[in-house]
Amino acid sequence: MQLFVLKLEGARTLTGRSFIPTQPRTSGTSRLIPLVVCIHGASYDSEYFDIDSQHSIFTLGETLQIPIVAIDRPGYGGSTAYPDPKIKNEDLERRCTTFVQEQGKYLNSIILPALWKEFGSSASSMVVLAHSIGGMMAIVAAAEPKKYPLVGLVVSGIGCKSHMHESPNPSHRNEGDSHGSRDSDQADEQQMHIRFNPNVKDRLMLNFPPKANEVLLIDLKISSHTEALNKPVPLGELHDVRTMWQSYWRSYAERVTVPFLYAIGDQDGFWDSSEEGTMQFTEIFRTKSPKVESVVIPLAPHCMEMSLQGTAWLLRCLGFAIECTMGQRKKH
């Protein structure tokens, strides 16, 4: 694994980590190989996919000789923030857009083409693997016209039915009120930051079934990484996931034209993991996607990539990426 700094157009920067096999792909003689691009959720950066040797997609990528890139989303790590932090949620709403929509379109138009240009020489196509809020942005990106060979999309830890969603409160937009949007949003950020990054004690106090509780107890070593992994969350993405996502996700999901793999942990504290909820979410992707798969991961929390189920899930993702890439041969 190597850290990278990539200069983007408009004097912007993208940082992250990568593993690229040393043996380059030779035209006409090598197998079809996917470039897997990983996109983290809220309050993490690219390290989410490379916590330690037991919780790392890079370890698996090296074993399978699959090129892997994990980015620091705009506003995380050394990546230039986008949209501009000075732009308020109200300003975006007046433009009939949201934080996630803007960052998803930026991901599609600027970041993913740049990653393909920089790292794509060792691959024949691209598959995007995204978690939580990063998954929302990846869905937006996948629905847009592309300048890179996307052949598959994998998303975990989101959905259409959530415990977080609330109706927007107009009083939060009253800047003249001392209890207006700024104070409220800051309080929301603190609460959501805690919820996205509960410490081990808090996790074990949640209402898990006994067997799930035992699994979490076994995985306590992840707790030593918790503080290091915690990152500040842009207010825009918290506002979006809580108040806006439900109003527009269908318009993007129904335009995704590549195979889609969806997963959620049955102990996810944010999203509905019921059969009804997962079916309601994935059914929209069947509008244009040639293949839609969904799985509820047993005894897995919201951040399943960090759990004891992490390795099995990431192996499944890489298998799906290979399958999507082999589908290229069928087309040609």
UniProtKB/TrEMBL annotation:
Record region (Disordered): 162-188
InterPro entries hit by this protein: AB_hydrolase_1 (IPR000073), AB_hydrolase_fold (IPR029058)
Superkingdom of the source species: Eukaryota
Molecular-function GO terms, alphabetical: hydrolase activity
Residues annotated as domain AB hydrolase-1: 36-304
Keyword annotations of the record: Hydrolase
Compositionally biased region (Basic and acidic residues): 172-185
Pfam families given in the database record: Abhydrolase_6
Protein name: Alpha/Beta hydrolase protein
Gene source species: Aspergillus caelatus
